[in-house]
Structures are given as C-alpha cells and as structure tokens.
Specification:
The complex is a heterotrimer.
Chain A: H1 2-32, H2 39-48, H3 68-91, H4 99-121, E1 126-127, E2 137-140, E3 143-146, H5 147-169, H6 171-181, H7 183-188, H8 193-219, E4 221-222, H9 228-241, H10 246-266, H11 275-289
Antiparallel strand pairs in A: 1-4, 2-3
Chain B: E1 8-18, E2 21-32, E3 36-40, H1 47-54, E4 62-67, E5 70-71, H2 77-82, E6 85-87, H3 100-110, H4 115-128, H5 144-157, E7 162-166, H6 174-191, E8 194-198, H7 202-208, E9 211-216, E10 219-224, H8 226-231, H9 233-240
Parallel strand pairs in B: 3-8, 3-9, 6-7, 7-8
Antiparallel strand pairs in B: 1-2, 1-4, 4-5, 9-10
Chain C: H1 8-35, H2 38-64, H3 71-86, H4 92-95, H5 101-104, H6 110-132, H7 137-157, H8 159-162, E1 168-169, H9 177-196, H10 198-208, H11 210-215, H12 220-246, E2 248-249, H13 256-269, H14 274-296, E3 298-300, E4 303-305, H15 311-326, H16 343-350
Antiparallel strand pairs in C: 1-2, 3-4
Helix pairs in contact in C: 1-2, 1-9, 2-9, 2-12, 2-13, 2-14, 3-6, 3-12, 6-12, 9-10, 10-12, 13-14, 13-15, 14-15
Classes of the chains: A mainly alpha, B alpha/beta, C mainly alpha.
Bound molecules: adenosine-5'-triphosphate and magnesium ion.
Chain lengths: 304, 251, 352
Amino acid sequence: MANIVQVLVDAIALGSLYALVALAIGLVFGVMRLVNFAQADYITIGAYALVVPTVSVTPPLLLGALPSALMIGGVLVVVMALALLTERVAFRPLRNSNPSTLLISSFAVSYFLQNLVMLIHTGRPKSVGIGQGLANAVEIGGVRVPGVQLLTMVVTAGLLVALVLFLKKTPLGIQMRAAAENFQMARLLGMPANRVIALAFAISGLLGGAVSLLLTIQTGTLDLRMGLMPVVYAFFATVIGGMGSLPGAALGGFLVGVASVLLQTYLPADLRPFRDAGVFMMVILILLVRPQGLIVTSAAKERV
Amino acid sequence: MSRPSKERLEARGVAVAFGGIRALSGVDLELRRGEVLGLIGPNGAGKTTMVNVLSGFQRPTSGSISLDGIDVSKLTARKIAQAGVGRSFQAARLFRAMTVEQNLSVAAIGSGLSRKAARERALEILDWMGLAKKADNRCDSLSYGDERRVSIARALALQPSFALLDEPASGMNDAECEALMEVIAELPARFGCGVLLIEHNMKVIMGVCQRIHVLDGGQSLAEGSPQDIQKNPAVRRAYLGEKAADSTLAI
Amino acid sequence: MKSDTMSFATIGRFWFPVLALVIPLAIIVVVTGQFGGLSIQRTVIEMLISIVIVVGLYVFVGNSGIISFGHATFMAIAAYASAWQTCCEMLKPITMSGLPPFLRDQSIPLLPSAVVSVLLAGGAAFLTGLVIMRLTGLAASISTLAVLFILNVVYSNWDSVTMGSASIVGLPTYVTAWLALGCAVFAIVIAYLYQVSAFGLAIRATREDEVAAAASGISLYWSRLIAFTLSGFMVGLGGVLQAHYLGTVSINSFFLSFTFLALAMLIVGGMGSLAGAVVGVVVITAMVDIFRRLEGGISIGGEQWSLPAGTQELIIAAFMLLILVFRKDGIMAGREMTLPGQEQREKGLING
Ligand SMILES: Nc1ncnc2c1ncn2[C@@H]1O[C@H](COP(=O)(O)OP(=O)(O)OP(=O)(O)O)[C@@H](O)[C@H]1O
Ligand SMILES: [Mg+2]
C-alpha cells in the first residue's frame, strides 16, 4: 500500500512540475499566439547560471555559492531578464506574424541559446551540488518522501496558487486571461499589449527559473538539454488541454506528468526506456478523440 | 408550410445563440432554384448568420436545413459546398497569393473537375463577367471592386444549385452596382441556380429580386414581393426606425 | 483546345521554373567535378541530398503552411530500413540480432531495397498523417514534434534492431554527385508537377484561407494528407541517399539539430515557393561550409586562426531570425523563377 502512496506522491510532484511549465507556455501563447520553444533554454540557462563557465565537469559555483535566498533570487532574476530580452529582441518585431512564423522563430531562438550555452560552458554534462540537505527523506504517515519531492510539491503548489490568485484577482491577470480566451477581442478592446506581453514573459521566466532550481536540486547535474523534456511535455500538455486554455494547460501538464510516472512504475522493466514514447502516443490518441483538446476555447474557433 | 421538397434550399425553425446573444430565433427560409431571393434587415439582424447556417459553417442551436428535400444539417461546410451550395463572404476572403483564375479553379476543382477542365470553366466565367483580362493577375493586386466580383465568380465556379451572396455590392460605386445587378439578374437563367442576395443597397435589392425576406433581431419580419415589402409598415418601422416615411425604400 | 496550341514556347514557359533551378545545379556539378577539390565535391553532394530533403519538406510545409518537425522521422525510417537490408552481412546477425531472419541473414540488392525503404517512409507518413492532419495547424505542428520524439525514443532504445544510439556502419556507399543530382532533379520535378496539379492548387488554397477553401468544396484533411504522404516519400528518398552517402546511420542525426537545419534552409529561401526551397539549401549549405572551414582553422599571414566550435550554429540561427524579422517570406518571397517580362503571366501557371 505504502508503495502506491509513494507512486502517487511521485506522480503528483511531476504532474505539478509539468503543469507549471505548461502554464508558462500557455500564458505566452495566450497573449501573443507564440508557442515558445525557448522556454527550454530559459530553464537550462537558469541552471547554468549557478556555476562559473569553465570546461570542468565539476565547475566552481557562481550564483550557487550564494546563500539560499540570494541564490534563488539571483536565478529567478537571470531567467526573467533572459525571457524579457528574447521578447524584446526576437519576438516583438514578429508580433503580428502568423503562429507558424512565431513557432519557427522560437525554434531558432532556442537553437541559438542552446549553442550559446554550449559555446560558453562546453557541451559536457556537469555536476553541481546545491541543496544537498534536501536529499534526506522525510517520513510522513509511514511514507518516506524524499525532501526534494516534498520541496517540489510545496513550491509548485505555492506557485500554482499564487498564479491562480494573480490571474483571478488582479486587473492585469484578468486581462491576461481575457487575452488567452479571446485574443482578437482582447486586442480590439485595447489590451495594453506591450505591458501584458512583457508581463507574460516575465512570469514565464519566473516559472522557468523555479523549474531550473528544482531540476538541478533533483538531479545534481547540468545538461544542455535539461530544459527540453519538460518543455516538450508542456507543449503536448497545452495541446491536449486545448490551445489557449490556461486551466487546460495545467490539466494537461498534470495528466502527462502523472502518466509518465505511472508508465515508469508499471511498465515491465525492459519496456521502461520507451516510457516517453508511450506518453507521446497517448497524447496523439487523446487528440484523435478530441482534436480540439480537452477544454475548447473560443480562441480555437474562427468567426466566419 | 409545405413539406421539404425538391429544388429547394430550406431552413426550418433555425435558431442560433452565441452565448447570450440570440442571432437567430426560429427562422424559416426557402430558396427555390431559378429565383433571386433578397435577404435584408438592419445591421446585426442575423443575415450573415443565416448564410453561415445554410452553408454549413454554423451549426444551428435548433432547427434544420434541407437541400432538395434531403436533411443536410449534419454535413460539414465542405460537403454542403460539394452538394451544390456556393457562397461568397462579406469580406471577400480571396486566396490572396493566387491568381484570379486559380481562385476560381479551386472552386471548380472542389466541385470535382480536373485541373484542365477547372481552368476552362474559370476562364469561361471570367469572360462572361468581363474579368478575362485579369485572369492571371494575383488577387493581392486587385482593386476593391474587382475583389468583390472575383469572390462572386468563385462562388459560381463551384457550379452551385444555390448561390448565397453576402453583400456583394458593398463598397461599389453606382456604375459597378449597375453592372453587378445585370450579372446577378442573369444568374438563374445562365446557371440554373437559386440566388440568395444579402444587400443593404435597396436599389440593387428592388432591381433584381423576385421575393424578399426581411429579418430583424433574429426573427422573420416579413416575406413577399418587392412591392409588398416596400409597402409593409412593420418593415419600414424596423428598417428605418421611426422616421419610416423616408425615401430610401421607395426608390 | 489548349493542347492543339501547345508549342515549344508554351512547354518552355511551363517548365521554365524547373529549368531555372536544375540547370544551375547541373553546372555546379560539372564545374566542381572538373575543377573542384575533394572537399568541395563532398559539399556539393551534401547540398544535392539536402535539396531532395528540403524540397520534400517543402511539398508539405510550403504548400500547406504548416510547420512540420516530424519529417526527420520518415527519413530515419527509410535510412534504417535501407541499412537493415543492405548493411554489413557478416556483422548483422550479431549487432542486430533482433532483425527478422529474412533481413538478418542476407542482403537485399540496392535498388529494390531503396524502393522498399522509400515506400516505408511514405507509408509511415500516411499513417501518421491520418491522425495528425485532423488537427488545426498549430496543434498539428506540435504533434509532428511528438512523432519525432516517439521515433527517437523507440529507435534509441530498440537495441537489438537499431543498435540503440550507436551508429550502424558499413552501408554500401554508392551515392555519387551525378546520382545525387539525378535525385534532386527528380524531387524538383515531382514537387513542381504536384504544386501545379489540382491537388497542389487545393492545398495552397487551404493555406491562404481555410474557410474560403471549405466553401469551395476543398477538403482540408485530404489535401493535407496527400501532401504529407508525398512529402514523406520524398524525404524518405533523402534519408536513403544520406545513409548511402555517409555509409553510416545514427538516430541522433535525425533529431532536433537536423530538423532545425532543414527548416532553416526552407525558411531562409522562403517556404512559399519551390525556388525558395532550393535557394535556401544553396545559401545555408554555403554558409555552413564556410563557417565549418573557419572553425577548422585557416592561416592568415602565416598565423593560425580559427573560430570557436559552435559559431556556425549561432550564426545560422541568428541569420534565420534576421530573415524572419526583415524578410519574413524568405529570399524568394514566395516567387518562382520567371522569365523577365513574363512575370505577370507566369504567375498564373506557377505560383499557385
Ligand atoms: N461568432 C459569433 N460570436 C458571437 N456573436 C456573433 C457571432 N456571429 C454573429 N454574432 C452576433 O449575432 C448577431 C447577428 O450577426 P450577423 O453577422 O448575422 O448580422 P448581419 O445581419 O449579417 O449584420 P451586418 O448587416 O452588419 O452584416 C450580431 O449581434 C452579432 O454580433
Ligand atoms: Mg452580415
């Protein structure tokens, strides 16, 4: 029994992590119809900001050397600044392009950033030790929950709640939701585009930074592609959730995360490496049944 | 009312609601082959919505559509087009990076023709409408009036039994309107189709329609010959507001 | 009527956009074959193979307007299929023990194996298209990404058949400059005939305006599915060529970096026209080649000087972004090659 509880804990932790990334993707999509590949590199660069650029595989710490609060703040600021920079330099000039052009441009930005990191830090994976104290398991009601898991759950839950409050209670948040639900209309009604879009990028950077830290603490390694899988999962999450729907994105993220953990646990050992393929197949099957995604917004339908 | 019959495009009790807005509530409309039926009404009356329903782009909340006596309410827009319902759009919606001939050929291909036969039909229609010289021009280089005419021509290239034209004359000058009226008046004889004409310009409506159907606030207000409609006090009130004794209707 | 008046002039006009692409390519092959060094010749072959691939990609992406990240999948399927059939007869039973006996214990002649591989790629594209082409444009794009990942995960882990993420080496290398040129010409001709056909016209209409296309009786689903399948066949051919040019096959060469490069070629040239696809390949191949050489090191005035590894990728990505911002329809801006003075008339035949 305890085993099942443990699996559930894992599933919820990963599900909420993916929900977080999916929300970051969904917010930016909502305000400018951009599916942002570069989100992966926000996450990667946030993590690399912890260390000094060297060729070493065990590099000395940079932001990682700071006291926890400063380190966290530092990473978040770096990633938010990066997100805003990409918005300003690459995406703003393309703002009125069609979604396909935007998608391909974010692919280019992502490729650029990834190679930039490689140029600075080399392509080798590196190990970094931050938050080691969290490796200890905490025992809650007979279930041993690793500290990192617990942290992930607390942080993601906290961020999700904060984000929901922001979107529901503040004027800017409400505008952002309106934009996501009906982009054209929000534009017509005079949504202050620059401000709302910049804010969406800032939030996606904030969430990206949080994910950077959580991933680094979990794995203790840095890798050029560390942001890729979460973001790819988040893409699929936004599609099965229904493009343009924020609750859909969160729900989708949660579903793919949970599915991933369940497959990892219950697949026979020799099929386990195929886990991601299984989840992605599931995504395609869901789309076969519901091409518009689980939650259909008016954004998905064009007015004739 | 008569039972659904052959040679007709019929809407029965069609209602459409967008959230709280009732764009149409229980409208019956019948378009016969060989006639030009005017569909008029103030802005927001539900005319475009009616065309969207008839052409399969909008599922009615309730009610049904039948084509030559067969229920087509569940068909997709593409299938309805192939079944012989052509339409134009209020905003021309041309394939802008393609030539005029290609725009028409697409519809001809959609109706089942080969590329070569499609081109022939397209050129024939363009010739008839006096657009032959523009055949190989890209649509993003057309004048506004030509854009509108090409969008009508494209609807015809489908060789439809019913053509639904959404404000084809909007933005045209008087001379262009005259020419367009000639074209529309000739459609039933030339293509053997029925034409549903939405138009705000009363001169055009009165000039070419055999019957007129008036919508207001999503409901049928009246239907009849141009003379009847012109005289109908309810229509004048709805259409012109309180200053009904205006001259616009009485051309 | 029309066919009676078919003269050399009309035929010439019809084929001009193809000839304007093919003849320069042939000249490049002849000239580099006569005067170029070995490394230039290799670059030219790579460029011709890229043309097969990018023109194949264009058949779907350019005509439908939907970005696909999934085409490397069909290339990989063809490349691996060809490897299974033709590679290393001695080693196969050991390194790829999971293959069915008819593949494991014998080699299949080159031509039939190539044909089978291309058919497999097209078949795989058709099957994925059946599902994915039902989605709206952006969701379809992202789903092609899912396809890419699925294949990557499967082939990287299916050790007994694909050798996992290791390279399969020892494929017969039969691709010469002339064969590559022949295939590039074939791809260009197919893409051209397709785009001026009824199917091509139909899918281009859906790219311009889905709603108006539906009102014209065009099926979004079928026209996209046909384009996707045809383009699957074509990139499959590219995959076979690449495999038998390099002599090795490795799943990681069919993943995101490759996808990026192929899309960059298409976007830079302009995805709206066949000429754009070809021009993009030529431009990006030249850039990659130049920067690869600079990264390798050159000597200026007796001093050894080189760019750090990775500069090439940065520059290609930056170049692509600049194109997107300042010339978003690419170098060719959706135009085909036209005879001067016949621009207006020609558009009718070609640009649809
Ligand atoms: N997709 C939609 N979503 C929400 N409301 C809609 C939609 N389409 C139409 N409406 C509303 O339905 C009503 C009828 O619109 P419709 O376009 O049919 O009017 P119309 O008679 O064509 O007007 P006009 O003469 O201005 O073209 C309007 O109030 C309009 O705002
Ligand atoms: Mg209207």
